[in-house]
Amino acid sequence: xxxxxxxxxxxxxxxxxxxxxxxxxxxxxxxxxxxxxxxxxxxxxxxxxxxxxxxxxxxxxxxxxxxxxxxxxxxxxxxxxxxxxxxxxxxxxxxxxxxxxxxxxxxxxxxxxxxxxxxxxxxx
Length: 124
Known about the structure:
The chain has 124 residues and is α+β, with helices and mostly antiparallel strands. Helix content is 21%, strand content 34%. The chain has helices at 15-24, 72-83, 111-114, and strands at 3-10, 31-37, 44-48, 51-55, 58-67, 92-98. The strands form two sheets. Strands 2-5-1-6 form a four-stranded antiparallel sheet, covered by helices on one side. The protein has a two-stranded antiparallel sheet with strand order 3-4. It is elongated.
């Protein structure tokens, strides 16, 4: 089975809704980062102490997840349904094939490295 990384870059205010929707289709593991970027939005102008400044980088969030059993198209459709407003700044989704994955704790590789282990709970 193929392993795919999906990177979603979008507005920060959509994070909770996106995470809930992805959880509902079975995507449980993800990494979320605060990022800054520029695209068609081109930033904006701010005034600080009487001087104008061009702010070219816009704050966004990046959600990264790895899937093998859940169809990539289902993840893409779910994300687009949640994130699409029709306005500039909705974001981008990148789909990247993954050659291999390794669970460091057990040494499991490939699909086994990204699957949840039934009945196993992390120690806290």
